[in-house]
Structure formats: C-alpha cells, structure tokens
Amino acid sequence: MHMSKTRFIFAAAMVLGLSTPALGQQVLLDWGPNCFGWETDYAGHISEPGSVLTILGRIDAFYDPLDFLDPETNEYTFVFDSLLSLGTVEIGGIIFETEYDGGWFRIYEDTTPDFEFGIDPPNATAPASFTDGELIMEGPLANVHVVLVDDGTPPGATGTLTGDWVITGGSLSYLMEDCYGPLLAAWTDDPAVVPIPQGYTCHADGKFDLEDCPGTPVESETWGAVKQLFR
Amino acid sequence: MRAMLISFMLWGAVVGAPSATRTAWLADYHGYDFTWPLPEDFTSPGQFYAAVGPVISMNEDFFILDDDQFEYTIHIHSGTLTYADTVGTYVFFYYEDGDGTISFYEDSRDEGTLADYGTYPPNETSPSTFVDGTHMLGGAFTSLRIVFEMEDGDGSFSGTINFTEGTYLENIPPDMRDGWTFSGLGVGHPPFVPEGYMNQVDGEVYLEEGTPTKRCTWGNIKQRYED
User: Fold this and answer.
1) Is the ipTM of this complex over 0.90?
2) Residue of chain B whose Cα is closest to the Cα of A71
3) Which side of chain B, N or C, has fewer Cβ within a 10 Å radius?
4) What predicted TM-score, i.e. pTM, was given to this entire model?
C-alpha cells in the first residue's frame, strides 16, 4: 500500500487533533444513481430464501471525517456482498419485506476511474471494476432489510433499504476503527422507475450515517508536535 | 411485407407514432423531514409534510453545480392530505390535490445564508435557509405517497412531478419536464436527527424523456417508399 507522506501526515493529524465524531448521527458518505444490485434468485418483487444479494456502486460525496477524499479526483466504489436472503414476506399483495442475513461492505479508491456495470453480472467488469484500486474501508453489515411497496400508483414500485455497518478494516480504517452507524437507501426493482441494466434486479440510492466511534482514542496536539512525529 | 409496413406507417401518421420513453436521472439529495405546524402529525386538518436538505449531485446534462461558490438545497412540501390508509402495520398517506411542491435552490456561500436545520421546524432557519437564493427549478406533485411501518418507523415516499418554474427551467427540454422522486425514510430521534425532525431522507429525482412524434401526410409517406 502506498500513501503519500502528505496524506499520511494529514490523516494522522486528524486522528490526533480532532475529537471523535460527536455522539449522534451525521452523514458519512452518499451515493446516487450509479448503484445496482443483483440476486441469485429474485423475480417479481420476491427474493427466495437462500438468494444472495450483491450491490455495486460509486460514492459521490464524503463528509467529515472523510471529507478529504475527493470523488472528483479519484473513483470511490463500493461492494455490498454476502447478503443472504431469508425470503420475502408479502403483505396485502402490495408490500414486500425481505430480511438479509450477514453481509459485508468494502470501499475502494481507484486512481483510474473505470467502473462499469455491464449486463448479466457477474461479468467481465462487475464486480471487477468496482473492486480494483485500494481497499480503504470494510466491515460487516447487519440487519439489512428491504421494504418495497407496489400499490399501482406511479411511478412504480419503490421502497427502502436499511441496515447497520461497522468499520473493521481497510487502509483508512485507523481513522475510524469500530465506528458504526446506519445505512439508508431509496430502493426500487422497477425499471419503470429507474432503468436497471439487464441481469441486475435492483437500484439503490443511499448513504452511510456515522453514529458513534467508541474505540477511537483522542489526543490533542499542536501541528508542530504532529510534524515532529514524522521527521 | 411492404403493404404491411405502409399500413403501419399510415396508422402512425393518423394517430401519432407510439412514443418511446426513456428515463433521465436529474438529482440526488438527502436531509430530514417533518410535519407542520404540529410535529409527527400527518392527519389533523391543516397539517403538511415537508423535507429539506442538501442536493448532493445533479445531472451535468442539465445543471453544472459549483459547490465551491454555492450551496444547493431541496425543499419538498406535500400539500394537502387527500386520504390515508393502512395495510397491516403500514400506514399510507396520499396527496393527490396537486398542491404539493418540490424545488431546488442555489445560494451563494459568500452572500447567502447557509442552510441550518435548527430544531422543531418550521423555525427561524428551516425551511427558510433551504428556500433562499435562486429558485433553480420547481414543480408540483401530481401525486405523492408516503408510507411508514408503524412499529419500526422506517418508510419511503414517492411522487410524480411536473416541473413548471424556476430560473433554470429552460435547462430542461420541454418534453422532459415530467418526472418523479422517490426516497427512503429512516426513523430518527434525537440525537440521531435534529430535534423536532422525524426521519432521515435519502432520495433522487428522475425525468421522463419522451421521443417526440412527427405528423406527416399520406403523400409524404408514399414518397419515402416510391422507387
């Protein structure tokens, strides 16, 4: 792993000089239209028990304490995988609830933007073009839950993806190790709402919120003291 | 085959060839929502639903954002509740009177007022600091549906939109001013969302792109296929 001295010093200064994020929730990262997922056994709003969900996407914005990451300069992609469906429960013929067991997220920094969904994943570019570059953060997902509503009203079937995440690894995890929070996304499986590439089964637009970082030690230092560490 | 083709084209000339519609992404946003004038009350007379927040990104085919100079915000207002319904543990709120609105704003970071959620909106800064600056684009909801699961509080909304106003309305071609928005709603309570707000919001807006039709005469069609 290569990290420029400048970024390492800056990042270290952040760890030493910044307090832990305030208790509560704040947006950590956000992604938008470039996110699609597929399942191994999904059709007509129904995810069969044992179906595995994989989601790929590109991050559009980072916030404190990751706001030094610039999506205009580098490509930041993510993968949510190993999400095991427990099966869809249909309610009233219009509500479709699916719980997923397990799951893992990975975020990559790629200096050569190349993400491409292609069709019928996995394919030559997906997930490969989403997992190239440097793995900067990863960790388990939990309590992933999808609710889809299709009552016939326009624009079509839409809903919500929720879950929880915690950072346990990756090259930048030292900044936020054991930090955790909720995941929220707008969700659809309806190509009338969002054009979904062939072979993909869903689109999600969402964010990670940062709730707390219980294990990150804090020590206030001057900039001069930080520089001395690296001389 | 040629006779069938001509017949098809004749039908097209008389009634207008079927339009192939495409969808174009417009914007991504997040924020928080609330009801007003009373908090967490959807159904009392005179109550409305609203959401405010930053615009994260917009389609550069329509808008080039300058995040260094400007702050971009969104304001969603439900209008009057038409009716509510329940299905299992889910409650549905439908707004179909056409008086709901969605708007995008551009505000100078140097000369404007930065968006501030405050607490218990509407308040001194919300939604006012989300609806100041240049009214970039705005439209009315032709329909809006909000759904909540009553036990865990999570939900979603979706609505169809007709964009009709804004300083930059002309950035959107006239045949692309109908669209929709949909959003996930995550339950929140202090300290998870600003006090007095209900949910986190994360959603996006799409436009429906219609392929324009062109009428022509039977004579024009015949000319195309005459040797």
Assistant:
1) no
2) B57
3) C
4) 0.85
